[in-house]
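pasting input
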Amino acid sequence: MRYVSTRGQAPSLGFEDTMLTGLARDGGLYVPETVPVLSEGDIATLAGLSYEEVAQRIMWPFVSEAFAEDEFAEMIARAYAGFGHAARAPLVQLGPNHHLLELFHGPTLAFKDFAMQLIGQMFEHVLTRRGDRVTIVGATSGDTGSAAIEAFRGLDAVDVFILYPHGRVSEVQRRQMTTPSEANVHALALTGHFDDCQARVKDMFNDFPFRDRVGLAGVNSINFARVLAQVVYYFTSAVSLGAPHRPVSFTVPTGNFGDVFAGHIAKRMGLPIEKLVVATNQNDILHRCLTTGEYRPGTVTPSISPSMDIQVSSNFERALHLAYGGDGAAIAQLMDELKGGGFTVSQGALQALREVYVSGRVSEEETSETIQTALAQTGELLCPHSAVGVKVAEALLGATPMVTLATAHPAKFPDAVEAATGVRPALPPRMADLFERDERITRVENDLAAVEAVIDERRAA
Ligand SMILES: Cc1ncc(COP(=O)(O)O)c(C=O)c1O
Ligand SMILES: N[C@@H](CCOP(=O)(O)O)C(=O)O
């Protein structure tokens, strides 16, 4: 399988190079040239399989050029062995036709672990085989960074630098990033918000001398391998609710659009997904765009669901690429307009987007109320991001089963959860001493040269 850039000007790559390359050299994101389609019969045979077995079957056509089948199965087994739930991604019922997909049983308590634990295995395998080293840079609003540091800490072939917005992640998230003591992982607190962190990461990829000198790689959802691993739980959950014989809808708390785009890939692979619902907090650019066709980022406003405090949503470019029929020149033009403040999606593309996605926006008050009522009515303690999803989903419940993705554990956001419910969620025992561990924090200004200088200095040390 070949992967092509959304902007059409970079060379097509196989899976291994796509994974190691990160951002395409024309600034675009890699997407599979064609998506394999499973028959109803193929999907039906997934019923009753373990999470790992489904993962192997779904991802294999995308990665088969890079690994032997048994090697890949071993990587999957190692990736999910540390999860705290035998089902890996269990479904719990919230109400008639409403189900919650708990994606927070991995080592850092957020859905990011599903992809990051596997990518850690794949990077290690490929880099060992090549005898190569890379420098991973990542931007985080809290969860990607902790998952990446956990997945790559202590690996010889990798240095990891994570930019997070200073003062804008929860204390648990920050400590997950700043307390690991391994010399190859570095948490950099940038003066700014998540969009600044992501912009500097993309700047580093576009600085070719720096990129080539340090062997830059990315583990944000820039990296298609991240998106791919997230396709799997759409299949496991839909099949357990009756797919392929019954359609299912999904509501996805959304920021950078990677998770919901994984659902789009699942749909293109033949999974009968009726609607993909994009749920946003007050940073609602995606809801505004899907409603009006105008994509104009505003200022990021801090919220109680900080991981979704994003205005420039990286993977929306992939959805636009599909909506514009794979026209790379059109996407390059839109992204140029974005530098000048924003763009208007064409009527045809907007219609194509609306055939797949619907959206909703949730206020801070509604998020708190939803955490409170979900606990009272169902006994489920939601994190604020999952609550955004539940609130949007509730307005759309109908005959088709709805699955809302619970993207993080409530204990990552104890202040917001306690303020809403009076209950302070406890961290799992293995993290009980998180608040006693020493932190290593490096402050950095929102400036490309300053960030690159820190990376150069740390790599040389
Ligand atoms: C807890 C949580 N929920 C939702 C999201 C939004 O996911 P995505 O960026 O894939 O849209 C994030 C950030 O990625 C997150 O960390
Ligand atoms: N919410 C994310 C933002 C980065 O998203 P990614 O999926 O592109 O890595 C986070 O928690 O960091």
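fyi The mean pLDDT is 97.
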